[in-house]
Write a structure and sequence with these properties.
25% strand, 33% helix, elongated, Rossmann fold, Metallo-beta-lactamase, Chain A, 7-stranded mixed sheet, binds MU-OXO-diiron, 391 residues, 2 domains
Length: 391
């Protein structure tokens, strides 16, 4: 691995994971994911977060190479989720005198996960500072971005924010590590998918974190996933601010579950009606084909949603039920919505979709359309009003 210098005495020590299929064993990783760790090789040395265990077989060799026989003095744990923390046990074997800097909530998890005792732990409080020599670190507690113990570390000297999950992204760093070395159009989708899938549920806490960071000069953002923002960190901040305020673009996501094709025809029909009225951002997804992860990301992006399901054992289709479950967890807000469904002998799809949508407190813009059997223009007349209203 070539040495990648972030700033004075700060070295990038991340890695790409192209093997893992599902992040948290739930969210697909077709483009992989990067885990970022940073070594500050100052008078006192500090590692900022670690990596997923086994993701980089020469991680310890690299740390030892850069330290050149010196001790690793500190490990800063911004977040205890194992994609950043699961190398702690092995680090402690190599550096038994290592001091782990984190907050008290993290300590309970460190104890539970890795048996870390008080001899290796030093609590840091909100706003507390330590000096490594040239670099002066301060700690900003940002609970629930993404777990309750989450915090960020700010280097007051070079104005670097080590933000952990915040401003992170799915997708590997394929040669380009910094925002000025990559084509961001790829990462914008992967970053929003990461935000909506992992962090979005805690959007109000992201806004609280922003309030805390108000007035902090940030020249660089070093997250624990995805690109390092050295040229334009304000772009990452702007995107996170927009997503956490639930601000969306004009456009319609139509997600359907169809067993025999009739509900799909309904989806295509209403999509066409909307397109004829001039809307260009229309995305139609079959929930049995496209993983909920990607549909949630598109729903986060666009203002309006139309959901349709066939009846299945007197409820909605199980794949639509999965999408609805994930939506109820991550909870995108300020959406316009409409619903449709089909059935063979009795209903259930639309009925259960309606119960779900009412709980989401979205803005219902039109009456639903439901039909028995195969569609025809008469049965689908209600879509004309739906298309007008959703626009
Ligand atoms: Fe990247 Fe919440 O872990």
């Amino acid at each position: 691995m070539k040495k990648i210098v972030i700033s004075n005495k700060v070295i990038y020590l991340g890695t790409n994971d192209r093997k893992k299929r599902l992040f948290e064993n739930n969210w697909p990783l077709p483009n992989g994911v990067a885990y970022n760790s940073y070594l500050i090789n100052d008078e006192k040395s500090a590692l900022i977060d670690t990596l997923e265990f086994g993701s980089k077989d020469d991680y310890l060799d690299e740390i030892r190479k850069y330290l050149d026989g010196r001790q690793l003095d500190y490990l800063v744990v911004n977040h205890m989720e194992p994609d950043h923390a699961s190398m702690i046990g092995i680090l402690l074997k190599f550096y038994p005198k290592l001091t782990i800097l984190s907050n008290i909530k993290a300590f309970k998890m460190l104890e539970a996960y890795y048996g870390v005792g008080t001899e290796n732990f030093q609590e840091v409080k909100d706003g507390e500072e330590i000096s490594l020599g040239y670099h002066k670190l301060s700690f900003i507690l940002t609970p629930w971005v993404h777990w309750p113990e989450t915090m960020m570390t700010y280097d007051k000297t070079d104005k670097i924010l080590f933000s952990c999950d915040a401003f992170g992204s799915f997708g590997t760093l394929d040669g380009g590590i910094f925002d000025d070395e990559i084509n961001f159009s790829f990462f914008e989708d992967e970053m929003r998918r990461y935000y909506s899938n992992i962090v979005g549920k805690y959007s109000n806490m992201v806004q609280k974190a922003f309030a805390k960071l108000q007035g902090t000069e940030i020249k660089m953002i070093c997250p624990s996933h995805g690109p390092v923002w050295r040229e334009n960190p304000s772009k990452a901040i702007e995107l996170y601010d927009r997503w956490s305020r639930h601000q969306s673009e004009d456009g319609v996501v139509i997600a359907f579950a169809s067993m025999y094709g009739n509900t799909e025809k309904m989806a295509d029909y209403v999509a066409r009606l909307i397109a004829e009225r001039g809307v260009k951002n229309i995305r139609v997804y079959d929930v049995s084909k496209t993983n909920a992860s990607f549909i949630i990301s598109e729903i986060w992006k666009y203002k309006s949603i139309i959901l349709g399901s066939c009846a299945y054992n007197t409820g909605m289709h199980p794949m639509m039920e999965h999408l609805c479950h994930e939506l109820s967890v991550v909870s995108p807000k300020d959406k316009n919505y409409a619903l449709f469904g089909s059935y063979s002998w009795t209903g259930g799809g639309l009925k259960t979709l309606t119960a779900f949508a009412e709980k989401m407190s979205w803005n219902k813009v039109s009456e639903p359309v439901e039909l028995m059997g195969s569609p025809n223009p008469e049965k689908m007349e209600g879509f004309i009003t739906m298309a007008k209203n959703i626009i």
